[in-house]
């Protein structure tokens, strides 16, 4: 009966008299027959309980041995680098059913993304209109970017007709971030990070959800009231009169008209706002995503933007593998650097910022005169340097994803000059292959210079919104992490 009396402090029938504890616990010599029977019954009962506990421990041990192992991967990178999108890709590979079950929640995020893109345009129109209404203000006034276009009566009417979208935004926000919660506060404090500084500092704020918040639950409730049995759409109650999709659908044509208006294009250009390369851009697919029975595709979900606050943990089980039980844990970091951000700035708060990395020969142009902004590519270099030089992480494998290559290609094709922003690039060719190779080398050199111990440089060029191309990279990374850990455990 191993384990029985060791755990429970009752009397051992075979207790050793020399053990002082056993002596104390021995039955009294004055014990009556009834007392003796009660005592033995109690002991038998406790033994049963103890055996059950032993059995459970053994069962768990056995299960742990058989169970597939978790790969512990930390996703790091500046805001909007693509961490959440990478996580979505992992979900898509390892638990596609769970990923697709969240379509109702992502549909709401996409609706919010649309409404906020529209609001940004409407705010831009309002600002331009107000300027012309000021005393002395005149449309057609020349600026360094050419004459300010006139806000047409047609545009002002469109703005009126799109006002109901404001209610949609408020309703969605209320649902995602209940009033009084930290998320609600966060929603109103986090600045949009990829807009020109003057807009970021202003009224346009980005919604942020605390990673621990169960925001998807608000939309999960729709499942209970769903009346359709189509598998992929089963979580959306299309007959709900309060569904924001109804208003969005009604505004669909006006949104298309607004987005294709040449005056709008001109106003956005003058403000240096490129909505197409901003997170959560869906204006080119308005007809599809505002259709009455719209269900987000996998790609839509990858493109949906919802800022994360805090750290979140997700677990994916690997399929059982023969080697799995042999080692405890493996840790790796995936570091995301959004390299399309070479001409973008990020607000870093009040501190003064040094705009060049003196010891590694990468010079960045000072993008704005405000000392609170930093070039996003430079930001990635600095964060990379911090992570790779951290002594606590010296044994951790690091995989670098140079992300958003699709946007990088688009920008270069549109004629944006890389060397205008990254001075050290000098007069090398302004094409994708040369620039991506250049950046790869720069990150590699930093790793060599700053890693406390020599580390292999794993680097991939990625586009996290492209599930197909990403899938193979993530599978390769997973295999590599596993292989490395096997090697360090001397198992291969
Ligand atoms: N075009 C393009 N967009 C991308 C790519 N990777 C991510 N995105 C988009 O960029 C936006 C930001 O990505 P997220 O994954 O939310 O970024 P994050 O690192 O989690 O940002 P925080 O939560 O603010 O820390 C999302 O709208 C993504 O869809 C990419 O490779 N190409
Ligand atoms: Mg995130």
Automatic annotation (TrEMBL):
It holds the Pfam family G-alpha. InterPro entries: Gprotein_alpha_su (IPR001019), GproteinA_insert (IPR011025), P-loop_NTPase (IPR027417). The keyword Glycosyltransferase does not apply. The keyword Nucleus does not apply. GO terms for cellular component: cytoplasm; heterotrimeric G-protein complex. Coiled coil: none annotated. It comes from the Eukaryota. Keywords: GTP-binding, Magnesium, Metal-binding, Nucleotide-binding, Transducer. GO terms for molecular function: G protein-coupled receptor binding; G-protein beta/gamma-subunit complex binding; GTP binding; GTPase activity; metal ion binding. Mg(2+) binds at residue 308. One of its GO terms (biological process) is adenylate cyclase-modulating G protein-coupled receptor signaling pathway. SUPFAM superfamilies: P-loop containing nucleoside triphosphate hydrolases (SSF52540), Transducin (alpha subunit), insertion domain (SSF47895). GTP binds at residues 302-308, 403-406. PANTHER family: GTP-BINDING PROTEIN ALPHA SUBUNIT, GUANINE NUCLEOTIDE-BINDING PROTEIN SUBUNIT ALPHA HOMOLOG. This is Guanine nucleotide-binding protein alpha-4 subunit. It comes from Panaeolus cyanescens. The lineage of its organism: Eukaryota, Fungi, Dikarya, Basidiomycota, Agaricomycotina.
């Amino acid at each position: 009966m191993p384990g029985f009396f060791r755990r429970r402090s009752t009397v051992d029938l075979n207790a050793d008299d020399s053990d002082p504890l056993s002596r104390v616990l021995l039955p009294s010599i004055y014990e009556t027959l009834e007392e003796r029977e009660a005592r033995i019954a109690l002991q038998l009962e406790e033994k049963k309980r103890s055996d059950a506990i032993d059995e459970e421990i053994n069962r768990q041990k056995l299960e742990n041995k058989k169970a597939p192992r978790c790969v512990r991967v930390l996703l790091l990178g500046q805001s909007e680098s693509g961490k959440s999108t990478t996580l979505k890709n992992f979900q898509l590979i390892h638990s596609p059913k769970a990923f697709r079950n969240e379509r109702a929640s992502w549909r709401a995020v996409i609706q919010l993304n649309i409404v906020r893109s529209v609001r940004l345009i409407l705010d831009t129109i309002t600002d331009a209109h107000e300027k012309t209404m000021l005393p002395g203000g005149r449309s057609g006034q020349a600026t360094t970017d050419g004459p300010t276009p006139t806000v047409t009566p047609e545009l002002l009417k469109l703005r009126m007709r799109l006002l109901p979208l404001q209610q949609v935004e408020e309703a969605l926000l209320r649902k995602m971030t209940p009033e009084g919660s930290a998320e609600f506060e966060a929603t109103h404090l986090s600045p949009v990070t990829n807009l020109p500084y003057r807009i970021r500092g202003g009224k346009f704020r980005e919604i942020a959800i605390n990673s621990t918040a169960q925001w998807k639950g608000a939309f999960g409730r729709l499942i209970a009231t769903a009346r359709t049995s189509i598998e992929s759409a089963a979580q959306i109650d299309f007959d709900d009169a309060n569904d924001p999709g109804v208003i969005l659908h009604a505004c669909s044509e006006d949104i298309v008209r607004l987005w294709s208006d040449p005056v709008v294009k001109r106003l956005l250009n003058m403000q240096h706002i490129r909505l197409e390369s901003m997170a959560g851009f869906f204006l080119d697919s308005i007809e599809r995503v505002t259709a009455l029975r719209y269900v987000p595709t996998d790609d839509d979900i990858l493109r949906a933007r919802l800022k994360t606050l805090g750290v979140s943990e997700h677990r994916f089980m690997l399929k059982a593998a023969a080697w799995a039980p042999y080692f405890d844990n493996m840790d790796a970091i995936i570091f995301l650097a959004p390299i399309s951000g070479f001409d973008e700035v990020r607000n870093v708060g009040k501190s003064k910022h040094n705009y060049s990395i003196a010891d590694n020969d990468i010079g960045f142009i000072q993008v704005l005169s405000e000392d609170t902004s930093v070039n996003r590519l430079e930001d990635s270099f600095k964060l990379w340097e911090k992570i790779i030089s951290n002594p606590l992480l010296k044994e951790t494998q690091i995989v670098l994803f140079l992300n958003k290559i699709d946007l990088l290609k688009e920008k270069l094709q549109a004629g944006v000059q890389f060397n205008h922003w990254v001075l050290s690039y000098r007069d090398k060719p302004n094409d994708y292959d040369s620039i991506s190779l250049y950046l790869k080398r720069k990150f590699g050199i930093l790793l060599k210079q700053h890693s406390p111990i020599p580390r292999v440089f794993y680097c991939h060029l990625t586009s996290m919104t492209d599930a197909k191309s990403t899938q193979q990279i993530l599978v390769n990374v997973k295999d590599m992490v596993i292989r490395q850990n096997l090697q360090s455990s001397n198992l291969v």
